[in-house]
Amino acid sequence: MSGRHTGPDLRHRALVPVLVFVGTVVAVISSLGAPLVPTIAAVDHVSLSDAQWSLTITLLVGSIATPVLGRLGDGPHRRGVVLGALAVVTLGGVLAALPLGFGSLVAGRGLQGVGLGLVPLAIATARDALSAERSRSAVAMLSITTVAGVGLGYPLTGLITESLGVHAAFWFGAIICALALLGAALVLPESGARKSRPLDALGAVLLAVGLASLLLALSEGDVWGWTSPRVLGMIVFAVVVLVAWSRHELRTGHPLVDLRSLRNHSVLTANVAGLIAGVAMYMLMSMVTRFVQTPSSAGYGFGTSVLVTGLVLLPFSAASVASSKLVPLLARRTSSAMVLPIGCGVSLVSMVLFLVARGSLWELFVIMGVAGLGVGCTFAVMPGLIVNAVPSHETGSAISFNQVLRTIGYTTGSVLSAVVLEAHTPSGQPLPTNSGYETAAWLGCVIWVVTAVVTIIVPKRGAAAAKRAMTVDEEVLMDESIADAETAEDTTSAAHARSAR
Prior knowledge:
- Helices cover 79% and strands 0% of the residues.
- By secondary structure, it is mainly alpha-helical.
- It folds into 3 domains: 190 residues, Up-down Bundle (Growth Hormone, Chain: A); 56 residues; 240 residues, Growth Hormone, Chain: A (Up-down Bundle), CATH 1.20.1250.20.
- Helix 11 runs antiparallel to helix 12 and helix 15 runs antiparallel to helix 18.
- The chain is globular, with a radius of gyration of 25 Å.
- The N and C termini lie far apart (68 Å).
């Protein structure tokens, strides 16, 4: 941006609410397909596995578009990139809403996946356009919208679908995205005199191919078989391509994602924690949504509708938003470094509660509220760690990479819960045993413990490394000072000797 705004103009005051609205819309739209999968299968006369593509295609396109939008948004055309992406998402919503068949719906959902790259650009905009104090709170709130919007989207989707039908839910997505586009067009500032950098096309292609192969294998492994040659081959291929991408990014002059920033322990902490926490978060959400919809005849579950299932997730969204007010208080009472492990600890409590107390709906409401509080604290801190560690012209790209890692974590968490429950489903039976949920919850507890350990150990090692580097620098300066003094002393002695002669 060309400069910080100081005037009380309406456009500037509306910037944060509009950015938060954009982030919430993106999160709602990204989760729009999840509760509708059975309905889509019935309406479009396709199998459940085919209907699942209404969600899978959004994640695939989003994981590819996010780093590209992040890099483009770090240049002088951020406003145009944001508006263009919102226009594509709106078009995708219209295409998904029109009764043109399943192919049109999947294509529209793919276009909506482009929106997943908008939150990093919103965070970069907040960093550049706001004062330091307002920027910190805005960045935290924007990060939370990516998880809070998911819990908000489920009940809204359920209410609209049950009242007006599945296509109305997608019309709702198109309308709110059009409103976000209008708001962004009115308040987004120009990027100013930012330097334009060439897009790393080869890096974008390699990352797209690698992520698409990995996420496709994770998404379809349950259908194709986890030990099938197709799934194993795609995972191996993804690893090879992503290794090649990493080598390319480290060698090119204008990388799509500056992987060298991972040498900074704050950035490394945020990215590793985002990946692992994403796994644990979606494990719980997947288990809860499946658990409450299971008929009570299975010996557990409540046989709830899509609407009631969404309402169970509503405390998750509310508590996530509330955590944005709690994080500054925690940081003042403890330290910024402790907020991450505290958030992981609260999330661990929610997983333990699901393990021991899931016999009634009100207990699940409490569990999701506790989960939202913990996840909100965890994800609210991550962008701040990155923003404070990278230069402003790398903000969009760095946050985008973190968003990609979260997406991989979300997909992996959903898959893990499905795999564990499938392993506890008796042969010939459609539903898993209750013990399957216990096993998955124990695994979730382990993942949250690992995340907490990472958020404690990595920053400490970074601080230790910085202290060692500082000590070395001080020793070098001391040696240089001593050498300078000795040189000065030798020069003085030589001068005295010449005078004596």
